[in-house]
């Protein structure tokens, strides 16, 4: 796409996909691959292995370039589906995918998952939904019995408010905070009333 067209789509029409593609193509999210992010990914990998050992079916929303799937390694899942609004990010994710992975370009606010999952993960992505609580509740209907949601939110001035807005729909099974250059909270949530 020409740079003028890209500029108009990003800045004037404010098209989300173009904004994210631009940022990935410029390498603005390379930092996610760095040492500072290792603790956040390691906590998630630990939760998946502990809470859903074996061959769980995993769905990751806003998966970016597939860093979580790469850190998990294929023996820790039976099926992995990753979706992201950026086709640039998904192209890079696909380049490192194995046969158990499906990567899709889609908007989390519109996408309808196919099938049911043991864990559905929003790793630094729930902020980008227009209606975070409704989005989590909608995706939660695609959990298997005893399925879990995993949500991470980086500490920022609205993060307490965001967690508070999610609280009513879910019970908290566990949480862990990682502190590197940034502070990130990872919570394991289950739809209210479900015993695990
Ligand atoms: C901060 S990045 C996190 C990427 C990845 N989860 C990680 O931790 O490496 C947020 C991701 O959410 C994606 N995203 C933003 N809005 C989205 C939407 N409406 N639907 C799907 N993905 C979206 C972006 O393209 C980006 O890859």
If you had to describe this structure to a student in words, what would you say it looks like?
There is one protein chain. This protein has 196 residues and is of the alpha/beta class. The chain has a single domain, classed as Rossmann fold, CATH 3.40.50. 34% of the residues lie in helices and 28% in strands. It is built from seven helices and seven strands, in the order H-H-H-E-H-E-H-E-E-H-E-H-E-E. Strands 3-2-1-4-5-7-6 form a seven-stranded mixed sheet, sandwiched between helices. The longest helix is centred in the first third of the chain and has 14 residues, at 38-51. The protein is globular. S-adenosylmethionine (SAM) binds next to helix 2. S-adenosylmethionine binds next to helix 2.
Quick description:
The protein has seven helices and seven strands; from the N terminus they run H-H-H-E-H-E-H-E-E-H-E-H-E-E. It has helices at residues 3-12, 16-25, 38-51, 67-72, 87-94, 132-140, 159-167; strands at 57-61, 79-84, 101-105, 117-123, 143-154, 170-179, 183-191.
